[in-house]
Amino acid sequence: MFTYPALLWLLPILGAVILIHLINMLRHRRVEWAAMEFVLASYKKSRTRILFQQLLLMLLRTLAVAAIILMFASPQLEGHLAQWLSGRGTHHIILLDDSYSLNERNLAQGGVPLFDDAVAVIQQIAQYKPNDRLTLLKLSTAEPLLHELPLHTDGLQTIQNVLANLQPSSVAHEPSTMLTTANDLVRQTVGLNPVVYFLSDFRRRNWAVSQATLPDQGEYTPILGQIEAIRQHGGTVRMIRIAQAEQPNLGIEHLHLVEGIHAADVDILLDATIANYGHHAAENVLITLFVNDQMRSQRTVPTIPPGGKTVPPIRFPVRVSGSEANQIEVRLQPDALPDDNHRYLALQVPDAIEILLIAPPPSAGSDYDAASLRSEASAQFVRVALAPGGARSGILVRQELPAFLAEQPLQRFSAIFLLDLPVLEPLAIRALENYVSAGGGVAFFPGANTDLEFVRNHLYKAGTGLFPAAPMMVQELLPDYLTNAADIRVAPHPIFRLFSDTESPLLGTVIVDRYLAVELQNEPSVNVWATLRNDAPLVLEKPFGAGRTMTFLTSASPVWNNWARNPSYVVVLLELAAWLSKRPEQSRSFLVGDALDVQVDPMEYEERVRIALPIREGESYADSVQIDAVSGIASFARTERPGFYAVHRRTRSGAEHSELKAVNVNPLEGDIRQLDVTEIMDILRPVRQPLETLSSFGSASDFSGSQSVSDWLLYAVILFLLAEMFLAGRMVPPLGR
């Protein structure tokens, strides 16, 4: 192997050296001498010796030129000869890919994990060699497990102890960063020949065409560049593929809550997506739902196409208690890779979500006027739609006057509905803005009592307020007797997920008589989700801080429309309450390797937080760690296993508060489809890096590094030139006749 093989094209120069020497031998010069007969007799006697000297001189000159060319090409010797020439041992730097894909079980060999094969390769390398050193790095950890441990008796025992406890991690790794640490170790190696062993399964997901060279720039991708850098620093790279025959695998890609009312003792919908990472269809796939370790439901998927997933997702209804956090788990039937057959979700729901209705106060006097009656009617229709009597919807409705917004904390409410858009005091407006900024949701419904000037100046505020657009006037929607088109057209949005534009017969019967016309002035953050048949906006959504507002530009009661008497009204209001009540943290799932940050209010809780880790298979109790909060945050730096992490905080009064956080594996690592050896070789060809398999590596008994022989070639050049000068000075030139 040569560092600069292109210089070998200079070797044909040796032919010119031989040609010049032969031409010089054929040159004769005449010498007139009286004793010519005596000289000729002497020449004939020594002719054989002179010819041998000429050939030896030609050989020395040829070897000198060849040695100079080879010296600049920098040849590398490997094996025991290289170690003997260098007089140094070898630094074995082992990079062990411990991604959870290495936990794939070889079903043809009794379910032995591929990771065990990788450990067996390390044991082959770690043989008794007192001059050698061994460094072992797992890709899931930053620090080496073993660092330059000598391969003598004590060192080998330490290595065996470490290898006996090695297990694959639950983390997914990308190969682009795998060789960076090894490159640093090669640069730091002094007095030893560094050899970097990279043990991985080389999956298609990591080693597709994105790892090839960049021909336009003439540069390498990061991983190929690291291989080249290791060589330039005197190291050797050996890449060993652990995976053997490809096996099919199924994995749970997603588990999430479906939009809806998430409360205790009502049906909560869960969607699970199953991916098929094999080249053949999966038949009769069994999926099981567990709630708090109790089996609740099972589904059988008739078929999942190769390389595809379940469309639509598998849906599970579940009812849970509101008193504590619930452990939701979906499991697949066993297959070659067990790690992605589980998906976890921590679900804690309230007994009921509470919706606050704000309606205008009644007019002065003993009797309501017409406007007051209409406002009360709006509230009555909304109350019945959200919380009908005799049926549990998971919603509690509380009706208050506008002054309530400034007088009471609003965080307890999942959403707030403002009916007929009453006039609010400045403190109430500020409280409402703070509520939405913190993640709350507000719905606006105009009506006969709406003061457009107030909405324009205090709620819209030139686009900086909660209201999405500048109100103009209340307009009539004239009847359409020609086309008989539906009055309402909806776009895809969760609150309209059960309707499809005007194809819904329910929405097609809704009649809108009047609406609030608005002016949208280049508001990129405002989305229009429903329009009238005259293309005027009807339903608008605007984000505000961490929350959102939904604005219906017609009344909530059947005053400007007949919608409240249509069955679709109940469906839309329930979906609206669910959408505004949505909180991202309610169903958030973490990936293995993510940090868990726990908010700790020092005025309410003690600074120390206890985190109970998931129970491993075979363990009887959960390990736990104690973490002190810094600046109000207790951070658990790195999750290492999937499952449920229980966070326990103690209040200043001594009560304990607990919550669950679900941590899952990265589903992408479950794609264990392989590249062909030829495809991997095409990827590695730009840096001329061979790929070894388990069988070829096992047959090799030499684990020594390479050694440059350029220094030895320099010594040879000097020796050849000195010999040439000595021999050329002693030779007798050929005589002519």
Topology:
Layout: H1 13-26, H2 36-73, E1 76-78, H3 80-86, E2 89-96, E3 105-106, E4 112-113, H4 114-125, E5 129-138, E6 146-151, H5 153-164, H6 180-188, E7 192-200, H7 222-232, E8 236-241, E9 250-257, E10 268-276, E11 282-291, E12 294-304, E13 314-318, E14 326-332, E15 342-347, E16 353-358, H8 370-386, E17 395-400, H9 404-407, E18 415-419, H10 426-437, E19 441-445, H11 452-460, E20 470-476, E21 488-490, H12 505-508, E22 514-519, E23 527-532, E24 537-544, E25 547-552, H13 567-581, E26 589-591, E27 596-599, E28 605-612, E29 624-628, E30 633-636, E31 643-651, E32 656-664, H14 677-684, E33 691-693, H15 694-699, E34 706-708, H16 710-730
Parallel strand pairs: 2-5, 2-7, 7-8, 8-33, 16-17, 16-18, 18-19, 19-25, 26-32
Antiparallel strand pairs: 1-34, 3-4, 5-6, 9-10, 10-13, 11-12, 11-14, 14-15, 20-22, 21-23, 23-24, 24-25, 27-30, 28-29, 28-31, 31-32
Helix pairs in contact: 1-2, 2-16, 6-7, 8-13
